Amino acid sequence: xxxxxxxxxxxxxxxxxxxxxxxxxxxxxxxxxxxxxxxxxxxxxxxxxxxxxxxxxxxxxxxxxxxxxxxxxxxxxxxxxxxxxxxxxxxxxxxxxxxxxxxxxxxxxxxxxxxxxxxxxxxxxxxxxxxxxxxxxxxxxxxxxxxxxxxxxxxxxxxxxxxxxxxxxxxxxxxxxxxxxxxxxxxxxxxx
Length: 192
Known about the structure:
192 residues; mainly alpha
């Protein structure tokens, strides 16, 4: 009977050893498979990240180039507007400057902020008509608001251009002001 019991113990022990070995082997196979899949996933993820990073870098580079160009174009618009607001009393000079503004806008429209595009064009159109409005409505208090509204449109463009550029103040309390020298509010202390 001992032989039978010894054989049973030997079979059980062998089976256990074989099961343990197969368990380790099976686990090793599963681990190798998972490791391979994780490596493939890592390579795919690295490729996607590299591609996304490259696109972001290109986009950032384009944005930086566009920012420089947009700032320059807004400054040019501001310079034209500055000249325009003082030309309104000379019809010929104003007409010539309006033609210059139209040509300039045609070459730079895409770089201006949408609000600046609309305001800049409205400003030079108002400037073109300003002298005629003054002559037509001179001495008529019932329609002086039309002339004032035209000048308000011209003046407002400076503030729009400054706002659209959105440059931060260099010093505390600094404020960019685009109001005419004769405007009483231009003499106010900058708010901060």
